[in-house]
Amino acid sequence: MKIFILKRILAAIPLLIGITALSFVIMKLAPGDPTLIYTDPSVSLEDLKQVQQNLGLDKPVLHQYMYWLKNMFQGNLGYSYLSHKPVIVAMTERLPATLLLATVSLVVILALTLPLGLISGQKKDTLFDHSVTFFTFLGMSMPTFWLGLMLILALSLYWPLFPSSGFIDLSLSQAPWPQKIASILWHMALPLVTMVLGGLAALTRYHRFGIIGTLKQDYITAGRGRGLSEKRLLYKHAFKNASLPLVTILGLELPGLISGSFVIEYIFAWPGLGQLGVQAVFARDYPILMGTILFSSILMVIGNLIADIAYAWVDPRVTLK
Amino acid sequence: MKHNKHLLGLLLIVLIGLAACSQAPINKKKLQKPLTLNISAEPSVLNPILSTDSASSKVIDLVFSGLLRVSTNLELIPDLAQSYTINSEGTIYTFNLHKNAYWHDGKPVTAEDVKFTFERILDPKTNTVRRSNYIINGKEVQFKVINSHCIQAILPQPFAPFLTHMTMGILPKHLLSNQDINTALFNRNPIGSGPFVFQEWHSAQFIRLKRNENYYGKRPKLGSLLLKIIPDQNTALISLEKAEIDQSGISGKDYARYKDHPEFSIHRYEDLVYTYMGFNLKHQFFKDSQIRKAIAMAINKDAIVNGVLKGFGTTAHLPASPVSWAFPETLKKNPYPYNPEKSRQLLKAAGFRKNKQGILQKNGQPFEFTLITNKGNKDREKVAQLIQQFLKSVDIKVEIRLMEWSSFIKIVNAAKDPKDFDAVILGWSLGLDPDGHSLWHSSQYPKGFNFVAYNNAKVDKALQKGRLTMNTQHRKTIYKQVYHEIAKDLPYIFLYYPESLTGIQDRVKGLSPAGPAGLMNPIENVYLQP
Amino acid sequence: MGRSKSDAKITMKKIWAYLKKDKKTALALGFLFSISLAGLLLPFLSIDPNNFDPLNIQGPQPPSWQHPFGTDDLGRDLLLRCIDGARVSLMVGLIAMSIAMSVGTFIGAIAAYIGGWVDQLLMRILELFLAIPSIFLILTIQIMLKPSIYNVMIIIGLTSWMGVARLVRAELLSIKERTFITAARARNIAPLRLLFKHMLPHAINPMIVAAMLGMGYAILLESVLSFLGLGVQPPNASWGNMLENSLAFMRDAPWMALIPGLLITATVMALNYLGDALRQAWDPRA
Predict the structure, then answer these.
(1) Residues B167, B173, B175, B176, CA torsion sign
(2) pTM: predicted TM-score of the whole model, two decimal places
(3) b/e string for C126-164 if b means 16 or more Cβ within 10 A?
(4) How distant, in Å, are the alpha carbons of B47, B299, B379, B495 from that of B384?
(5) Residue from B152, C253, B405 nearest A283 by CA
(6) What are the pLDDT digits (tens) for B331-386?
(7) Is any Cβ of chain A less than 8 angstroms from the Cβ of B229?
(8) Which residues from C are below 8 Å from B404, CB to CB?
């Protein structure tokens, strides 16, 4: 097991280098550079050139990438061109909000997906199944940002139940913890609903197929023949087996939680990593962008690893080697 | 169906829970909220010599102070410098600092700090874009400490706009002298000498400031300030309505909805900005001034002000703002008023005829061009579409292209001749000084901001003279000539000066008259009605 | 060849039988058909949905008999613009999906057919593409290229082929060892012919389903790109840039945001239902 994990981590290193190299090159091909974002006539072009030189932007791309890579292996991700902050600091500041939204939505999605998929798979072609299908298709088909806007329009504007943006009520900086948490949850409501509705759909759909598929399997039929109760068959055998693919998908979705939530973060002014990354694209803030990409690729590697381990754990027939 | 009910129950519990939580913060609002402003974007860096974005400067203006500052009437008035003198040649500026000015950490502000600040700007290793402000004709301005509270700036030659650069925030030498200024922690935890002290910064959320109890000027009436970061305009307006913030910009189309709002009032003023359509004067058609004139006469500027700004703005015909002291009242009239009939005649006279597609054509070249503007600015996007319609009616075909800002700047600023664009829509915000050297002097092409390639010897000469002349009345005459030439030559079609609308809660008192220097300037006077 | 033709016939029959029974799918198909038709016919009418009178702009007007969907901020009829946008959105969906399908099929087929190190290499490249957060990739490439609808299609296509490649590879790997393929190989049929004439047709069903979903995905992605201002250029309409344009008018003119959003949702949903129906027609177990 330990050897397996070690091997996988070693195997991930070339992949990570490949990802960062490709991203770096694509990034550099985009016209413009970080000094241009606030250009106006009061700024002289000689000064811009000097800053470009100071930042090493006049060197060849390969040279710049090797420099970044060398520093990265020494644990130094550089400084943001925009805020002059260390990249690590800029990212860790944004991490809590992103992780909070991501994990809570993941939990909610799972809590809803498992029963919904199970029931609609078991009661295939009933009214319940059809309505679940309808709502999952609806969730898959709505543009996330539009859903977010409509929620703001309805639940924050016309019917002011929830705040439309932000992370916490700023008047609470001295308040006790429970109140702060309550405030954060309250602010999280709309982004959470947006994220859950979008994420729920595909997983539920997938789970439903898994259940239907396993219920058709020989061993379930055999179990029926042996007189095992339908409940036991469903919960003990079918459910467990149908959850396997879900585990894989969840592992794959981990990095998507960062890059996928950026529109949501933008609309609800949620102070997360996605917002930071997208801003970095437009500002050509390469160190931040590279940091974000590196982070999400590491998440992907971890996600895949967890998926494999979990797979082996749930299904004893799979061995890790 | 049983499971269905369970689920519904679960959902209900979650919703009720959230609603209950939502009650909690409301009950707690007993203390008066501090003055809460929206700075719209995450500031990049809270260091006056490094920052270039407006969110940063909003914070920096409160935390730092410069030798001079801008008054409500857009005049430079003493700040850290209690007084200053200029020698008769206009080359030596002597500033006497406030004796009781202290940094927020208690150390006194001295002439050494001033010298340090400007030397850091001049240091090529500093990643600042302000260096050229202190380099005149290739020579650096010298800063000489006379005594602990007196400093001289020695210019290689007279330079009229120099004083406007003396509003730069001063940095504390004792905290920065042995640091890399580009990456210093200071840039996120600034210590200045301004009316407010930096307290905390929650990235992408807010910045909190408190009153500087040892401020050398008038003691601020506000105990603290909260600067929220709300990038989305809709959200900001909702926050204003819910009184979560005290101030927000309002666009013209929303004026009617808010003008009678019981809790906040809208203040209107003309800002120091103008929007224009700029020609690439090296373009085969646009180099002909008659064709530019024809295009100008095909465009109805009043319709643009009404359609795009909902009437909140005035038409522009020259590159100066009506709020500026240099604005020539006598040149207020549009030299090329809307007249599509005349426009068609001019185009015909220039040799254009309609082709089969119904587009004007000359020597086999159809009159088609691409109008680029930066994406994200809805007003400019609309202006582009209006211009497209106007020019369509004189049979010129316009294609619009919205570009992301950095790519856009890369095109107009590329040091090549001719440049890869036909025409642009942009806006300039003007400084306090009317000096337009970087925009209109022929030396600023192809490297520089004269990207339209404007070249007029009269203007070049006058711009040089304007920089060397210290007398304001003389300068006014000089710039009048510059504006007259430019308005006549039409390198840009000047479109409009937008009016700024800002909504401020009625509980905020002590405001100055609305103007580009800000309603809350000086901030010391502002207070909240209990 | 004869084999795949008869396959197709049977499938068409199945689909028709299914449609008669299944009203939802018929509805989905009808909806897609009618918006495509309207979108395609619009250019033949001499109405320009981008036209307005710059001298007299009548802000956004609510839906009325004259303008069933209302008008936008420049006073242009939104029904016309929605129809015009339908053509753009569907075209982006269709072409982007075709690019993704071609690239994905090509790479998946090569990987499965040749196997060995080629397979390994291609799969690593695929992982690379999967690992870079697509939104950053798309944004950056989009900035790099001139903003235009064709580039949007290409970018979406080139960044969403990975799923198809995996699917094709998996399907082909399972077919590869089947007896008729082994027999064909023994008969020395040219590899490409074998691949395209004998192996791929067996993977066609899941591929069509993937195409339906892929088209929906492309339409959604186009709307995000346009929402960020990087897609179709004004004055031309796409559902995405209509939404972006509606942002500033959310409160005064909610119809500007509501209608294009509903159209996107309905279209993508119809594609999903269609994909689902096709799947059921081929594999009634699911």
Answers:
(1) positive
(2) 0.86
(3) bbbbbbbbbbbbbbbbbbbbebebebbbbbbbbbbbbbb
(4) 37, 11, 9, 11
(5) B405
(6) 888 999 999 999 999 999 999 999 998 999 999 899 999 999 998 888 999 999 99
(7) yes
(8) 143, 229-230
